[in-house]
């Protein structure tokens, strides 16, 4: 099983980034997929999830700014991040499952938002 995240980088506050995560070795279209993040010195936080039927859920801290989507034909999940803030700086992880404590994790991609 492999979850390969990409798209992180350095962006100024107010800017946008789009993260992508391609999955292999899982039955992608049967799995809820999600994005979590971990900022320095903080616990991991579940940012957004999307069910196989594309029902979405977001952490309050990102509602209205982030959009999760999926392409089942490409086994890929995306996280569009707009109006980025310095407090969004973190390593972002793609994962399976709807909760922080369950599922499979990919390697992270670093997002840095400068003020």
Write the topology of this structure.
Blueprint (H helix, E strand, L loop, with lengths): L1 E5 L2 E4 L4 E8 L8 E6 L6 E6 L5 E3 L7 E6 L4 E6 L8 E7 L12 E6 L1
Parallel strand pairs: 2-10
Antiparallel strand pairs: 1-3, 3-8, 4-5, 4-9, 5-6, 7-8, 9-10
What does this structure look like?
By secondary structure, the chain is mainly β. The protein contains no helices and ten strands. It has strands at residues 2-6, 9-12, 17-24, 33-38, 45-50, 56-58, 66-71, 76-81, 90-96, 109-114. The radius of gyration is 13 Å and the shape is globular. The model has no long low-confidence stretch (mean pLDDT 95).
Quick gist of this model?
With 115 residues, the protein is mainly beta. The protein is built from no helices and 10 strands.
Strand content: over 45%
Instruction: Count the E strands.
Output: 10
- What is the straight-line distance between the termini? 37 Å
Helix content: under 10%
Largest sheet: 6 strands, mixed
Task: Walk across the major sheet and give the strand order.
Answer: 2-10-9-4-5-6
Give start-end ranges of low-pLDDT stretches. Answer: none
Radius of gyration: 13 Å
Which outline best applies? globular
**Structural class of the secondary elements?**
mainly beta
Number of helices: 0
Average pLDDT reading: 95
H and E order: EEEEEEEEEE
Key traits:
globular; mainly beta; 4-stranded antiparallel sheet; 115 residues; 6-stranded mixed sheet; 0% helix
């Amino acid at each position: 099983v492999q979850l390969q995240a990409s798209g992180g980088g350095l962006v100024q506050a107010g800017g946008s980034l789009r993260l992508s995560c391609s999955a292999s070795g899982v039955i992608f279209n049967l799995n809820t997929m999600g994005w979590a993040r971990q900022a320095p010195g903080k616990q991991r936080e579940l940012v957004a999830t999307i069910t196989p039927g594309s029902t979405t859920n977001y952490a309050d801290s990102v509602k209205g700014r982030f959009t999760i989507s999926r392409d089942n034909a490409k086994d890929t999940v995306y996280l569009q991040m707009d109006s980025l803030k310095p407090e969004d700086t973190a390593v972002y992880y793609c994962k399976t499952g709807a909760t922080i404590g369950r599922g499979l994790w990919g390697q992270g991609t670093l997002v840095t938002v400068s003020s």
